[in-house]
């Protein structure tokens, strides 16, 4: 067993799991954070996307032991008790999601993009979302949502430490 | 205070209490929704033309939508299915003893354990688990329920299956020949046949300025929903089964589960939640009877989720089509006669092939006025992944064929591809290939509007030139 | 995924110790983008996985006396953002950018890409074209070799189970050498290469000729290879579009592409000629723009 302590969505959690447990399984099965999804388990679809130590990653491609002591931000860490994260709000208004399965991954990728580049070009948006596959929407309204958020310029930079 | 109550009291440290009080990391500590959203469309009439927010958008954005794989029932076991890995074979024996003896394995079942081992939306030719014969490499031959997914997967390796391999039939044109051994012998491989006949094609060809022939093929396509197939079964002490499933058609699902398990439909409850993409691929049962039987055997809830490789191998796909077209036209490009032969690769089991056959055949003529038409379509068995429902049910494939064919004809006759379509397109009151009078026909208007928006005529696209 | 043990290395020395301790049934995990994808559905897993992701001495990126030294753990994203690499070798930035997507580039390492050694690897051709050398650490110490000797064949390098790739070096004499990389895949994102080409050469501006030309091809042989016929042809030859086109045609003969479900050998051959010519054009354009600056 490996014992892992992570700062997930601003809260410290410790878990003891089998060494081959991926970060994705740790989040979903041990910590009950089911927002990150298992779509392919090999890093192709992006449904498992989370932010570790400020970097956007496929959580299915990290072992639990590798995140010991690190900050992990998941979809559950974006909204607060009194408001949605701006990305969630605009995605809702634009109708960017249909079945919703790819949603958490796409939203995390969008957050990583806008945290670093508040005014991305169309190419930069497509490049940033290239690791998130969607079979329902054709991506158009997601891209429109990202452009709308960039235009509004009201994005708050939330970090892993704030809840 | 008596002893029993004393034993029941437990001293918990402050640390334990803190652990108990914790919500899952990141979950807000107030109940949802953050605010109740009332869409404009709900308040106004008429709703058409008003902006409406999807009701599920809030939960999707928050990552709070619960899909089948997201929830857990106490005591739940995990099931995995062993896949044949061989396209055509007789099953000589299955030895599950070693798998059953593995620590953590709670039950193993094979085809023998299925009360009625056949189902299907039309032909009931599909087994829940292959019993005596394997008809494609993704056929399930055994299933394991274990305390973890890892143990269930490892147990599959321990199941020993002895196969007598047979020669598979893989080419649908090969399968079409009557001499080819039947995949589901003793009957021949053609399991669906449709003819649409209108007017007199031979007369039409005789009157044509030129007759063109073209042959087109499309490939097998997998839906690849982001969410893999998943189901979870649990029974109550009254013998009622509840199955949580990604299944799209739950009424049909209840019927199939009732049939395969040999229990009345009134004892079957299906709960289908928000699905992570279907597109036709989740239209019939896959793992549901398996988890139901494993749950019955173990007395615990059992969940089974497809891996992504299983999605490609063992879930239904779009029919590959081989389409042969013969069209007779006037010098101006007006279609006088069309003859079509379609061969649908019907995979190992029927699934939704009969519906697909029907739609493909009816739509194969294209949205054009054709007075003399002969369309014949076959669907044949092959030893490949089942072909079933996928959005369009045969329409996309024939569309590729008849539009490509018409472009070829336009090019050969030196006619603008838009003009040839305007000439032949269906109009208000035209008869469909099956003799139905069509109304609200806007083909020509749509083509003209599209041409305007694309700037078709400005780009010098006349005479079949490409943009 | 089947069960294995997990141990974390503090630094490269500790990593080598752990590998020796647990060899031969041991694998290294850095970014995990290749290893875990392989192990997820595999029937065989190593007994132990050694995590080197915390070994900070393997993360260095600096110009040394020997040249540009890149630590094995430098990720593709870090390569794309490194001011040194952006200035000196935009081809490395381009190559890194063609790998996977943001998520995989944040995890995937340069060393990992080389160690997995698929013939279609995206980081290999540019490094081969720049005569890169690699350092391998083992129980007996460290040794250096040309990158071309590091690769043995598809998914095979000279590494033994108790050895670790620690450093990639672009030699001093090649610092700033104009290089261009092109990848041809079935898609623009998350695609495997059908053909990879990197071209690198100095320009003798007085005579306008190719100096020390190098052409490296990927995905068209069991490992990343040079195109020696094309290189020999270009050395000392005047730089013209015709010469570049001819080099492209000669490069085809140096390659051994296969037919597979992604593309036919014939198609790959056609693309080798096209991409080689374009890679040479790109390197020349870079040389010209650098010259204007100085």
Distance from N terminus to C terminus of chain A (CA atoms, Å) equals: 30 Å
Number of helices of chain B: 15
Major beta-sheet overview of chain A: 5 strands, mixed
Number of strands of chain B: 15
Tell me the β content of chain A.
15-25%
Termini separation of chain B (Å)? 92 Å
Shape of chain A: globular
- Reading the helices and strands of chain B in chain order gives HHHHEEHEEEHEHEHEEEHEHEHEEHEHHH
Tally of strands of chain A: 5
Structural class of chain B: alpha+beta
Trace the largest sheet of chain B across and list its strands.
3-5-1-12-9-10-11
* H-E string of chain A: EEHEEEHHHH
Q: What is the overall pLDDT average of chain A?
A: 92
Supply the number of helical segments of chain A.
5
Q: Describe the sheet with the most strands of chain B.
A: 7 strands, mixed
Task: Please sum up the structure shown.
The complex is a heterotrimer of chains A (163), B (467) and C (294). Chain A is built from five helices and five strands. Chain A is an alpha+beta fold and 163 residues long.
Describe this structure in words.
The complex is a heterotrimer of chains A (163), B (467) and C (294). Chain A is built from five helices and five strands. Chain A has 163 residues and is an alpha+beta fold. In chain A, strand 3 (49-52) and strand 4 (55-58) form a beta hairpin. The longest helix of chain A is centred in the C-terminal third of the chain and has 14 residues, at 103-116. Residues 157-163 of chain A have low confidence and may be disordered. In chain B, helix 12 links the parallel strand 14 and strand 15 (372-380). Residues 3-9 and 463-467 of chain B have low confidence and may be disordered. Chain B has 467 residues and is of the alpha+beta class. Chain B has 15 helices and 15 strands. Chain C is 37% helix and 26% strand. Chain C has twelve helices and 14 strands. A five-stranded antiparallel β-sheet of chain C has the order 4-5-10-6-7. In chain C, strands 11-12-13-14 form a four-stranded antiparallel β-sheet. In chain C, strands 1-3-2 form a three-stranded parallel β-sheet, with helices on one face. In chain C, a hairpin with a 2-residue loop joins strand 8 and strand 9 (156-157). Chain C is globular, with a radius of gyration of 19 Å. Chains in contact: A-B, A-C, B-C. Chain B binds chain C through residues 150, 154, 157, 307, 309, and chain C through 1-3, 41, 43.
């Amino acid at each position: 067993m490996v014992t892992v302590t992570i700062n997930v969505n601003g809260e410290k959690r410790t878990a003891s799991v089998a060494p081959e447990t991926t970060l994705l399984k740790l989040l979903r099965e041990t910590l009950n954070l089911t927002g990150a999804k298992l779509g392919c388990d090999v890093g192709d679809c992006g449904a498992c996307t989370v932010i570790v130590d400020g970097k956007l990653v496929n959580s299915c491609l990290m072992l639990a032991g590798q995140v010991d002591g690190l900050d992990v931000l998941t979809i559950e860490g974006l909204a607060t008790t009194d408001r949605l994260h701006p990305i969630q709000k605009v995605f809702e208004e634009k109708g960017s999601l249909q079945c919703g399965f790819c949603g958490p991954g796409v939203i995390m990728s969008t957050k990583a993009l806008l945290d670093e580049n508040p005014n991305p070009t169309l190419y930069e948006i497509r490049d940033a979302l290239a690791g998130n596959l969607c079979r329902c929407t054709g991506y158009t309204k997601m891209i429109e949502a990202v452009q709308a958020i960039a235009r509004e310029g009201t994005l708050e930079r939330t970090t892993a430490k704030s809840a | 205070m008596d002893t029993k109550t004393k034993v029941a009291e437990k001293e918990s440290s402050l640390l334990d209490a803190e652990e108990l009080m914790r919500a899952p990391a990141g979950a807000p500590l107030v109940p949802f929704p953050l605010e109740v959203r009332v869409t404009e469309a709900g308040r106004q009439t008429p709703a058409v033309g008003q902006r409406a927010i999807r009701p599920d958008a809030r939960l999707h954005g928050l990552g709070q939508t619960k899909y089948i794989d997201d929830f857990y029932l106490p005591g739940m076991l995990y099931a995995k299915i062993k896949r044949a890995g061989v396209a055509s074979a007789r099953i000589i024996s299955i030895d599950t003893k070693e798998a059953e003896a593995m620590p953590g394995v709670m039950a193993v079942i094979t085809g023998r354990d299925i009360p009625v081992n056949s189902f299907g939306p039309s032909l009931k030719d599909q087994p829940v688990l292959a019993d005596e014969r394997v008809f494609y490499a993704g056929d399930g031959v055994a299933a394991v329920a274990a305390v973890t997914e890892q143990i269930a997967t490892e147990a599959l390796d321990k199941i020993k299956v002895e196969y007598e391999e047979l020669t598979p039939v893989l080419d649908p044109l090969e399968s079409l020949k009557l001499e080819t051994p039947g995949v589901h012998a003793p009957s021949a491989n053609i399991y669906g046949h449709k003819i649409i006949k209108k007017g007199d094609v031979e007369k039409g060809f005789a009157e044509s300025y030129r007759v063109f022939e073209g042959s087109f093929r499309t490939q097998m396509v997998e839906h690849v929903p982001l969410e893999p197939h998943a189901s979870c079964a649990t029974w109550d002490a009254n013998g009622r089964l509840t199955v949580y499933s990604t299944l799209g058609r739950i009424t049909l699902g209840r019927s199939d589960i009732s049939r395969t398990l040999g229990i009345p439909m009134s004892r079957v409850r299906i709960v289908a939640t928000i699905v992570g993409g279907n597109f036709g691929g989740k239209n019939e049962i896959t793992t549901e009877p398996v988890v139901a039987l494993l749950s019955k055997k173990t007395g615990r809830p059992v969940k089974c989720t497809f891996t992504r490789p299983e999605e490609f191998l063992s879930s239904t796909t779009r029919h590959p089509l081989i389409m042969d077209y013969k069209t007779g036209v006037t010098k101006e490009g007006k279609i006088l006669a069309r003859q079509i032969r379609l061969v649908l690769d019907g995979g190992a089991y029927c699934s939704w092939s009969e519906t697909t056959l029907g739609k493909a055949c009816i739509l194969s003529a294209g949205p054009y006025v054709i007075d003399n038409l002969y369309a014949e379509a076959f669907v044949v068995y092959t030893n490949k992944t089942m072909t079933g429902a996928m959005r369009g049910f045969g329409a996309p494939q024939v569309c590729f064929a008849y539009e490509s064919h018409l472009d070829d004809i336009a090019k050969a006759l030196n006619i603008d591809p838009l003009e040839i379509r305007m000439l032949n397109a269906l109009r208000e009151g035209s008869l469909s290939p099956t003799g139905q009078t069509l109304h609200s026909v806007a083909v020509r208007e749509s083509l003209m509007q599209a041409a305007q928006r694309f700037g078709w005529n400005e780009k010098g696209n006349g005479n079949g030139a490409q943009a | 995924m089947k069960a294995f043990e997990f141990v974390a290395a503090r630094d490269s020395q500790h990593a080598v110790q752990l590998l020796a301790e647990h060899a031969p049934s041991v694998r290294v995990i850095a970014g995990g983008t290749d290893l875990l994808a392989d192990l997820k559905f595999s029937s065989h897993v190593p007994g132990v996985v050694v995590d080197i992701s915390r070994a900070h001495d393997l993360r260095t990126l600096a110009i040394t006396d020997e040249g540009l030294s890149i630590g094995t753990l430098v990720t593709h994203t870090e390569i794309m953002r490194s001011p040194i690499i952006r200035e000196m070798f935009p081809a490395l930035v381009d190559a890194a950018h063609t790998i996977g997507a943001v998520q995989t580039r944040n995890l995937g390492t340069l060393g990992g890409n080389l160690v997995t050694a698929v013939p279609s690897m995206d980081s290999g051709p540019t490094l081969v074209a720049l005569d890169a050398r690699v350092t391998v650490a083992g129980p007996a110490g460290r040794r250096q070799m040309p990158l071309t000797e590091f690769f043995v064949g598809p998914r095979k390098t000279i590494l033994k189970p108790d050895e670790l790739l620690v450093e990639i070096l672009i030699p001093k004499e090649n610092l700033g050498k104009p290089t261009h990389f092109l990848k041809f895949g079935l898609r623009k994102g998350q695609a495997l290469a059908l053909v990879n080409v990197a071209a690198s050469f100095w320009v003798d501006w007085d005579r306008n000729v190719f100096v020390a030309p190098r052409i490296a091809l990927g995905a068209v042989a069991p490992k990343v290879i040079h195109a020696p016929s094309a290189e020999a042809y270009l050395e000392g030859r005047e730089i013209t579009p015709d010469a570049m086109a001819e080099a492209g045609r000669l490069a085809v003969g140096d390659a051994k592409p296969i037919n597979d479900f992604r593309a036919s050998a014939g198609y790959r051959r056609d693309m080798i000629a096209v991409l080689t010519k374009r890679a040479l054009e790109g390197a020349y354009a870079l040389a010209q723009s650098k010259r204007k600056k100085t």
